[in-house]
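Recap from last week: sequence in, structure out.
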Amino acid sequence: MQNIHVILVRPQLGQNIGSVARAMKNFGFNQLRLVAPRDGWPNEKANELAVGASDILSKATVFPNLVEASSDLNYLLGLTARDRFLNKEVITPHNFSEEDKFKHSYQIGLVFGPENNGLNNQDISLINKIVTIPTNPDFSSLNIAQSTIIVLYELFKLNLSADKQITQFDPATGKEVSDLFDHLESELTTRSFFKVDEKKEGMINNIRGIFKRITNLSSQDIRTLRGIVKSLTWKGEA
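Predicted structure tokens:
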């Protein structure tokens, strides 16, 4: 369970952060990351609803953006009900038992968006798969603590334990993949690939989406891909 990290992106209310920490402790998870909390951190209101989970709040780490919050992670699952998925695979918490990433050495981030409008397209471009929670279509809204409880309960049922066999695989970290994106974007910009400035952001998100759908990239894969980009763009000696 130390491999699972709950990431709250731009959370608005300290009370909700505290409720999430309580849900985490209910099911044995303690890795909490906060991305640009609206009211700053620490937040005394978070402790009001943590109810015995203040230790999780005190150890929570804060980041300015999702890229930095996930730089050392290998796999991201984004919780959202939005229908703009940038061609991402969509699963439900019930499908977690089919995800081999939970059984191996992956460092996994569960990404929850802000209370008012959830994850945006830029956030979604960074994740590997979308997780949606089936609800009544006439009243589908869940608050962030409710969503966290459902997701962590399903993971708790998998009975993750430290003595399970770990596969010998060196998965790429978020930083390695992000550096590849930056390298590729820089070279594409240099070669005028993005001909219309207004479309550049959407094209970059689509390119990120292509790589994020490849869910088993290793560190060696990233080095190979960067070598390919460098080879294709190297101008050689004058």
